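Q: What would this chain look like folded?
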Amino acid sequence: MRHLVFASVLAVSLTLPALCFALLYTVEGNAPQSAENYKRWPGFVDVVNQPSRQQLVWCNGAESFYYSGDTQALNAILRDFAKVECPTHTVIFRPGPLQNKYDWHVAIVEGIARHHVVANRLQLVNDLDPVLTVYISDKLKLDSVVVPQEIQIRQLSDLRSRYLDAQKDETAKPGADRLLEALDEDPILKQLGAKDYEARIQQIASFVELRRPKK
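A: My prediction, written as structure tokens:
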């Protein structure tokens, strides 16, 4: 089912530091979407149409896809994500679940939203290629997650370093400031409590470091 509303909302990419006032629509469930909508990234429609998708949200060309599933379903989307024809395949691991119901999320930037990113030098804080964010909870077994070699794996400390570097750029600084504030006010921190949140951060850090290419 698709719901159309006019609204002022936070941009649907969780990393896009901008407000949009536009026609916003959502698609509940996993009704198949057309590959014609994602021609910039051949193969991306297979990520969009994973059976685990629960919701699609579009605003000004920024589009987010929300999924719920187990470790097997996560491995399936990681395999398809790695096959997408694009320069980078960024996957971020962070504490979860998101909104107490989503286990991973994919964001893309097209249309007006993409123009906004380029015009305001927000490539310093926001990827122009698709990004998959995994929200680790007890539901997902990290030791059984398979990360294809095409994927660039990241964690919250990597995001913080990126945003701190972006603060040095006068144009990108406002966006970087907002994203750093969002990290500090992560609703999942309140949801889990400081102790469990930090434990999950450490669990993710161990997972990420073991799977990063050795320098």
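The chain has one domain: 2-211.
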